[in-house]
Amino acid sequence: MSSDEQREHAAETAGTESGVDTAGSGAGAGTTSRSSADSDAHTTTSAATGAEAPLVSVQNLEKYFWENDSLLDRLLGGEPVAVRAVDGVSFDIYEGETLGLVGESGCGKSTTGETLLRLQEPTGGRVEFGGENVYEMDNGAVTDFRQSAQVVFQDPFSSLDPRMTIGDIVQQPLDIHDVGTTDERRARVRDLLERVGLSTDQLDRYPHEFSGGQRQRIGIARALALEPEFLVLDEPTSALDVSVQAQVLNLLEDLQDEFDLTYLLISHDLSVIRHICDRVAVMYLGEIVEIGPVEELFDDPKHPYTKALLESVPRATTEERERDRETLAGDVPSPRDPPSGCRFRTRCPMVIPPEDLQIEQETFREIMTARERIENRDISLETVGGEQIEFEDGSVPSADVPAFVDLLHERLFDEPLPGRHREVVDEALAELADSDWEAAESTLRMEYESVCERENPGLGEGAHPVACHLYGEAGTGENAIDPDTWS
Amino acid sequence: MISDRLKSSLKREFDQSLMAKLGLSIALVIILVATFAPILATHHPGQTGHFDEEGSSYPPIGFDYQTHAWEDGDDGRERIPHTVQPTSEHVLGTNNLGQDVYSRMLFGARTSLLVGLIGTGLAAAFGVPFGLVAGYFGGRTDDSMMRVADIMLAFPSLVLAIALIGVFGRSVQYIPDPIVMAGFAEGMPEYAVLPGTVTLVVALVNWVWFARVARGEALAIRNEEYVKAARSLGASNWTVLRKHVLPNSLTPIIVLATIQVAAIILLESSLSYLGFSGTTLSWGYEISQGQDYLRTAWWISTIPGVAIVLAVISINLLGDWLRDALDPNIEGEGGV
Ligand code: SF4
């Protein structure tokens, strides 16, 4: 029943896109032709979400890397440090759909892709492929899994062995799994190369003789050789010229329809995601913060991080670009020591003030940023007073404290804080005049501790879950705080 | 395996570099000489007693030297001055035992090259797989394997070599010489002598360098996406090591191997100079023979010394040439 639906869908999309060939079509053509297919794909997917079991089910997947964990480090008594590249992510991928995984670089999306393919062993959680746990498969099952799940990598230069010919590269999967006779393998390689739009008289050439786009096609041909069901596309176009990107994306879409493929598309590029995905998962610092159907997520992003991401998409005019710069301030915190509570709170413009506090949202953000710097000891107190104020043995002469506080206040805030907030903050800053960081921290925490730093909001269930306290328990609307009142 | 690009880059470097030409010419001469030693030699290298009528060693052509002879005079035996003239029979003179230096140099080249090449081959055969496995698997495996290698490196190589020879004893292998066997060189030794222990020992001392280079390469290559791709296709570690890691780490290993031939020749010479070799047909041994006669018969030590220097320098020049030609940074691409 559902497979019929799939086929129909495939035929239909193939129909809509038959005019869009792999070669020579610009990005514009690809995008417009997609939009009609989008709504179609969307219905298929939501039908799938309802009943069908997912093809890939990722449950609480965790991948920590350990630093300072060598023999020598342990002999010297160093504590190993966990780098939480992937920290408990869960999502499902349904047959025939394309799920996008988007986030800034370093957020753990590529590690997620590699770990779910068991190219790296996870530190926790499970991944089910066709109902079977990938990490508990015996050798035979792993071999089957290796045939059904494939990957296309970001860098078409590094993903092809420079010492192998194109023919050998595409044939390698057939050799490894011992598929058919030598002649049959050769014939299949020719088919595959033709299918991805390369000419077969290039079989004996080496990768360096091809352009980036051609190499990526070779990588795709290799991934298809074993007739997989599922492909992880790890930034498949981000190393390519813009003009070639659309061609490769269109090829991937055509192949998906032709071979009933399911995709996990990892990308930091929102336009790529929008072009090709049915649903999108947004990742931040090892966690998924929002999952939803692509149109819904782009038209009505819920999580403040998703909003910030969408707003930072490059705009045509410089004016707009200037404005966008400011939407996502600050650096991504280190995954070695992620923030408590909500991981986005160090940058979130909507970070939630304590309930009974009267404060402007922007002012609160500024205070939270200042608190963050104090907690990280990220202010060099010696330089605050410049020449005028002496800073010796970690403190300022008591006569100079008010001047010191004023200078520090000026340094931390664009404009002096209004009313009572200035008093509270300056009290904390005066404690810094004695280098008493802890006292400053607790003074500020007493007044400004946010729910966002106490509790990590869970992602929850449903078709469009969001991990943010603004949306209350698990995005159900319960305890929800209306985000508009804060903006 | 050898692509056109590699060929052209080798050629370009060769054309541009005088040193490469020099290195290659000398090395070719040494190889030819070592191969055809029985034909090129004028005397059996072991044959003693080639002295002049007064029992003095001949100097090389173009040199003569003053010594003295004894003569029965009125007051019994008398010391009289005597000038030794060179002879065209012995172009490089004869040594203290009256052996033809030229012939001994040719056969010494054989020993040096055999030990150099076989020793390097063995060192690479131990070191490369060791290093590739350590680097490819990384983590604890790498840690413990490379500690072993570090311990080896902590010993001075000569001391280690002598200790190992002490353990294994000295043995030599006789390899039938096809040129002599086929009757092309009457009266020459029928066997080439390979000092087996020394060959094994120099390999045991020098494999660590191969291990380190191979490990470094494997560490880098295992993170290449083509390795991930192969693993996602289901390739076993063995396949990945053989098909991807080894071929892609060959370039620096080849360069290292070239330079190691020189290092091993030098080590072999040191060992045979110290008398640990097991064969007397060796440049190093020859130096030790002549060192008591440096004041008068300087050539006995100096000529083998020059031979060692030429061999080592020429091989190093070859190594530089290969390195420059193969260097992926200059080429701009990793592939060869
Ligand atoms: S939980 Fe708080 S800090 Fe996190 S995204 Fe929501 S509002 Fe921002």
TrEMBL record, chain A:
<keyword id="KW-0547">Nucleotide-binding</keyword>
<feature type="compositionally biased region" description="Basic and acidic residues">
    <location>
        <begin position="1"/>
        <end position="11"/>
    </location>
</feature>
<keyword id="KW-0067">ATP-binding</keyword>
<dbReference type="InterPro" id="IPR050319">
    <property type="entry name" value="ABC_transp_ATP-bind"/>
</dbReference>
<dbReference type="GO" id="GO:0005524">
    <property type="term" value="F:ATP binding"/>
</dbReference>
<feature type="compositionally biased region" description="Low complexity">
    <location>
        <begin position="18"/>
        <end position="48"/>
    </location>
</feature>
<feature type="domain" description="ABC transporter">
    <location>
        <begin position="56"/>
        <end position="310"/>
    </location>
</feature>
<dbReference type="InterPro" id="IPR003439">
    <property type="entry name" value="ABC_transporter-like_ATP-bd"/>
</dbReference>
<dbReference type="InterPro" id="IPR003593">
    <property type="entry name" value="AAA+_ATPase"/>
</dbReference>
<feature type="region of interest" description="Disordered">
    <location>
        <begin position="1"/>
        <end position="48"/>
    </location>
</feature>
<feature type="region of interest" description="Disordered">
    <location>
        <begin position="313"/>
        <end position="344"/>
    </location>
</feature>
<feature type="compositionally biased region" description="Basic and acidic residues">
    <location>
        <begin position="317"/>
        <end position="328"/>
    </location>
</feature>
<dbReference type="GO" id="GO:0015833">
    <property type="term" value="P:peptide transport"/>
</dbReference>
<protein>
    <submittedName>
        <fullName>Peptide ABC transporter ATPase</fullName>
    </submittedName>
</protein>
<dbReference type="InterPro" id="IPR027417">
    <property type="entry name" value="P-loop_NTPase"/>
</dbReference>
<dbReference type="Pfam" id="PF08352">
    <property type="entry name" value="oligo_HPY"/>
</dbReference>
<dbReference type="GO" id="GO:0055085">
    <property type="term" value="P:transmembrane transport"/>
</dbReference>
<dbReference type="InterPro" id="IPR013563">
    <property type="entry name" value="Oligopep_ABC_C"/>
</dbReference>
<comment type="similarity">
    <text>Belongs to the ABC transporter superfamily.</text>
</comment>
<keyword id="KW-0813">Transport</keyword>
<dbReference type="InterPro" id="IPR017871">
    <property type="entry name" value="ABC_transporter-like_CS"/>
</dbReference>
<dbReference type="Pfam" id="PF00005">
    <property type="entry name" value="ABC_tran"/>
</dbReference>
UniProtKB/TrEMBL annotation, chain B:
<dbReference type="InterPro" id="IPR035906">
    <property type="entry name" value="MetI-like_sf"/>
</dbReference>
<keyword id="KW-0813">Transport</keyword>
<feature type="transmembrane region" description="Helical">
    <location>
        <begin position="113"/>
        <end position="139"/>
    </location>
</feature>
<feature type="transmembrane region" description="Helical">
    <location>
        <begin position="296"/>
        <end position="318"/>
    </location>
</feature>
<comment type="similarity">
    <text>Belongs to the binding-protein-dependent transport system permease family.</text>
</comment>
<dbReference type="InterPro" id="IPR050366">
    <property type="entry name" value="BP-dependent_transpt_permease"/>
</dbReference>
<feature type="transmembrane region" description="Helical">
    <location>
        <begin position="151"/>
        <end position="172"/>
    </location>
</feature>
<dbReference type="InterPro" id="IPR000515">
    <property type="entry name" value="MetI-like"/>
</dbReference>
<feature type="transmembrane region" description="Helical">
    <location>
        <begin position="21"/>
        <end position="41"/>
    </location>
</feature>
<keyword id="KW-0812">Transmembrane</keyword>
<keyword id="KW-1003">Cell membrane</keyword>
<keyword id="KW-1133">Transmembrane helix</keyword>
<feature type="transmembrane region" description="Helical">
    <location>
        <begin position="253"/>
        <end position="276"/>
    </location>
</feature>
<protein>
    <submittedName>
        <fullName>Binding-protein-dependent transporters inner membrane component</fullName>
    </submittedName>
</protein>
<feature type="transmembrane region" description="Helical">
    <location>
        <begin position="192"/>
        <end position="210"/>
    </location>
</feature>
<feature type="domain" description="ABC transmembrane type-1">
    <location>
        <begin position="109"/>
        <end position="319"/>
    </location>
</feature>
<dbReference type="GO" id="GO:0055085">
    <property type="term" value="P:transmembrane transport"/>
</dbReference>
<keyword id="KW-0472">Membrane</keyword>
<dbReference type="GO" id="GO:0005886">
    <property type="term" value="C:plasma membrane"/>
</dbReference>
<dbReference type="Pfam" id="PF00528">
    <property type="entry name" value="BPD_transp_1"/>
</dbReference>
